[in-house]
Amino acid sequence: MKTESLLNHLLPLAKRSFSNLSHDPDGQGERTINEYSTELENDIADITSWAQSENQKELLTETLCRYAANYEKYLSSWLSSQSNCASSFITGGSNFPVSQQQKRHRWADNHYNTFREWRTRVLKAIKKFYTPSVDALELNRQKLADALKLHSFMKLVNSAHRDFVKNPQSIDALTLSDTWKIKIRSFIPQYSWIKHPFAPYQFTNNKARIKMYESRIKVLEEKNSKAEAIGKKEIPFADGFVILNFTEDRIQIKHNEKPPREIINRIKSNGFHWSPSNKVWQRQITEQAIYKASLLTGINHDTLTAKHHE
């Protein structure tokens, strides 16, 4: 897909949009079209790189066409709104409608901001769709391994510095990189309480991270065990049922019929979000989420908690 041909027909609009804003509207229009053509080309390249599987590649053409068409629509909307704007430096200050132009400039700025916000939001959504999700348990295990490795390395460096102070020749026998050997030789403490290259607070902070990852791993392992052993549990209430979906780590509220607007607003205000694919209101399973679901549905909290801990 050639983005140049896609946006070149907007060149007259781009030139017109700068007719009362620039001393060189034609040149400014051309530069603007080139700039956004390049951006669109880069966006298309990024989207293409995100599609890895064969199924994803089958959807790629449709995704690219839709994205390019919407990109052009938002860009055109901004350029059109800007064509009504003028600058007193270009048109002259005599009888210049300041108040009117201020409104038109705000209107054009709103169109521009909408365009940029749309691009950021849609690219994020497309990347999320095409990029495989990282398993949270494995990610935290890797982070824990990295934190433990860092802890060992910090101990090694400080120990090497301690030995170096006593015997400068001792550093030659170490397997540390030349960069770290230089750092140890040239180490000058910034404060009197820092005796070695890695300060005590760095050990404290890293130990806190280790504990945090260990805690997360424990919670995720428990959730995975429930997902394998239980899968889903459904608890009925007057207007539907609550689903403890351990497989997806979501507590879900499903109504037999669409609830009134005030009920929907109450559900939203309690942290639940609508899932179009599952056709349920849901949020991550936590003790707080279970408590909120109990309030919203009238199901006894102990009943939901018992199901949660089965």
Attribute tags:
310 residues, alpha+beta, 5 strands, flat
The radius of gyration over CA amounts to 30 Å
State the separation between the terminal residues, measured CA to CA.
Answer: 54 Å
Shape: flat
Average pLDDT: 88
Low-confidence stretches: none
Q: Describe the largest sheet.
A: 5 strands, antiparallel
Number of strands: 5
How much helical structure, as a percent, in the residues? 55-70%
Task: Walk across the major sheet and give the strand order.
Answer: 1-2-3-5-4
The ordered string of helix (H) and strand (E) elements is HHHHHHHHHEEEHEEHH
Q: What structural category do the secondary elements indicate? A: alpha+beta
Number of domains as seen in the coordinates: 3
DSSP summary: helix tally: 12
Instruction: Work out the strand percent.
Output: 5-15%
Task: Characterise the protein shown here.
A hairpin with a 4-residue loop joins strand 2 (240-245) and strand 3 (250-255). The protein has helices at residues 3-8, 11-17, 25-50, 54-82, 88-91, 98-130, 136-166, 178-185, 200-229, 261-269, 287-297, 301-308, and strands spanning 232-237, 240-245, 250-255, 273-275, 280-284. The chain has 12 helices and 5 strands. By secondary structure, the chain is of the alpha+beta class. It folds into 3 domains: 3-130, no CATH class; 136-225; 230-308, no CATH class.
Topology:
Blueprint: H1 3-8, H2 11-17, H3 25-50, H4 54-82, H5 88-91, H6 98-130, H7 136-166, H8 178-185, H9 200-229, E1 232-237, E2 240-245, E3 250-255, H10 261-269, E4 273-275, E5 280-284, H11 287-297, H12 301-308
Antiparallel strand pairs: 1-2, 2-3, 3-5, 4-5
